[in-house]
UniProtKB/TrEMBL annotation:
Keyword vocabulary terms for this entry: Membrane, Transmembrane, Transmembrane helix
GO biological process: one example: positive regulation of plasminogen activation
Transmembrane residue ranges: 53-73
Record has Ligase as a keyword: no
GO cellular component term of the entry, any: plasma membrane
Pfam families xrefs: DUF2368
Keyword Electron transport set for record: no
Protein name per Swiss-Prot or TrEMBL: Plasminogen receptor, C-terminal lysine transmembrane protein
Superkingdom, natural source: Eukaryota
The gene coding this protein: LOC101600997
Length: 147
């Protein structure tokens, strides 16, 4: 009788462990999907922000270019055209960020760094461990209780 009861309990415990494992896996998958969705939303906001900046900077660049060109022609000083050069670099960068392939190139470069330059990504003193966190917590707790 005890053997049958023990066997039944073992089966129930095994079923419960499988259920808990499946539940943990499902929760992790949901968290991963949610984190990726949040990342995509943040990236979309960054791209939208860049496009808005491009609109305003494009208007500023156009007005500035017209007035600088008019000033250079009126005073016969080509030096007035010099600010157009750095402003055009900024305009090109904003366009590339908002509508071009800058984000894809950045992603490719980041993937290359992750693959070939892993040593540059290491944290000082290595990965944080539970023991190091507990040690810091105890020291901080001592500091507050000593006062």
């Amino acid at each position: 009788m005890g053997f049958v009861f023990s066997k039944s309990m073992n089966e129930n415990m095994k079923i419960q462990q499988e259920f808990m494992l499946m539940n943990a896996r499902l929760q992790l998958e949901r968290q991963l999907v949610m984190q990726n969705d949040m990342r995509e939303r943040q990236m979309a906001m960054q791209i939208a922000w860049s496009r808005e900046v491009l609109k305003y900077f494009g208007i500023f660049f156009s007005i500035t270019t017209v007035f600088l060109t008019a000033g250079a022609m009126k005073r016969k000083k080509p030096a007035f055209l010099f600010p157009i050069v750095p402003l055009s670099f900024i305009l090109t960068y904003q366009y590339d960020l908002g509508y071009g392939t800058l984000l894809q190139r950045m992603k490719d470069e980041a993937e290359d760094i992750l693959e070939t330059e892993k040593n540059k990504l290491q944290l000082p003193k290595g990965m944080i461990t539970f023991e190091s966190l507990e040690k810091a917590r105890r020291e901080q707790s001592k500091f507050f209780t000593d006062k």
